[in-house]
Design brief:
two-stranded antiparallel sheet; six-stranded parallel beta sheet; 20 helices
Amino acid sequence: MTHISKISPTANSNPVTLLIRPSGGRPNEEGAEHGRRRRRAVVFGHRWPWLCRPAPGRDAAPLRHLVRPGRRPRSSISLDPGRGRRPWPRPPIRPRAVYVSADLRNRAHLVKAFEGIEVVFHMAAPDSSINNHQLHYSVNVEVKRLIYTSSPSVVFDGVHGIFNGDETMPYPDKFNDSYSETKAEGEKLVVKANGRNGLLTCCIRPSSIFGPGDRLLVPSLYIIGDGNNVNDFTYVENVAHAHICAEQTLASEVGAKKAGGQAYFITNMEPIKFWEFMSLILEGLGYKRPSTKIPVTFMMPIAHMVESTYKLLSRYGMPVPQLTPSRIRLLSCNRTFNCSKAKDQIGYEPIVSLKDGLENTIESYSHLKAEHKKTTSKAYLCLGGGKIANTLLWKDQKQSVTALLLLIAIYYYLFTSGYTLITAMAKLLSFVALFLFIHGALPKKIFGYKIEKMPPSYFNISAEQAQSLACSATYSWNNGIGILRSLCKGKDWSLMFKVIIFLLSLNVLGMMSLQTIYKIGVFITFFAFYVYEKWEDAIDNSFNDAFSCLLRLKSEATQRL
């Protein structure tokens, strides 16, 4: 029977490890029947805890590779900080492992974990979005006895794309981020350690892992870049299979000579456009394919700003952002790899196709399906619905483009013609009057082409429209009065924070020219509302997180006073 015990992590350790220790077994288990010597192993895991346990609604597919007949129970180590506080799911029907939490960076914990262990599968790493060199260094470099799960990013410099790259590619002079740099350092140590004291080492470089329960692969509603970059993805069960292939090869004398101290690229061997892959996930969840392309040059400054904000506010609880410069580079570059070496030397072949892997992944994202989402956005309600909302939110693209072109034409006429405002308006009205006069004087048909005439009531405002405008004005006025009443109570800090931001924005606008304000206004009305509608939840969560950080700052300042 499996016994579960826990080792409390050190007080200042962020990455908490999860350790599965071998439980007792009978000497004549199935392995003996198959005539194979059982090998004990320890598995380090983080992003893929289900590699070592059954996934919801599915059998323990990756687990069966590790605890099939002929293998002793494994260990699994996770870097999930909350795992020590959350119970593990019920183990498989035939439990063969004990789960213990520990700190992966604690030498004493690891020494105890390695007692009686022959094979180490090191699959752990902190979130690659955390650009913390010390954290990544402590996890990726201070390890010595393992089959190391590295990353293709060890040969990626963040600038040049990789097409059909193989293991002869050198490490770059400059890495994309701390994650890649420390992964490379760890890989070098593992390769160098091969053969010392009879130990054998091997490195696996799985490309763009995906699968059920992935917390990092969140489909985007926008395409970053031109959308033509090609990528190699790897289904998580194929990653588990690759580790078993490497371990089996190292276990044999002949295989150890060719695989010891080697690194292998691992993929599904089905290169696909990165954004086509994302589109397949979105379609499976019931969303439309992303069509809006955002240039990398536009996103990169925003990513740098987000990263800088995180560095300032991370100690106050700000969550790790996924919009970082290194992530933008990964999303916009070609990254395909050749698995011939892994196929020839360790016998790796994908056991789950890309299509089947996508189906399993989409099934695990059922909580993100489109039918669970709201139909009316806050942006739509804020704009009052109707034609204005449809135009500014690009629901009627023809109308939106027409309005935008008209505003651009007005901008060039008013601000670049050199006229004063009154002169420009007078000339504009003269042009409109001349156009209407000529249009009215034209016959109904010219060369068989019918000219649509504007009725006399074309510019009239109906009673319903006037009432709607009056209601909108009344609503805005009453809403402003309501805000003032709430502020007078002195209790709503969230509202006070919003008012301060609004007034500061007005102060900034007051220092700008009318020309600049016009450009900013057009951008906000036609793009900011649209972006907010698409990323409403993410933006709201970011705002709430920022507000929580401000509350912590306020609390600390109050305590000091």
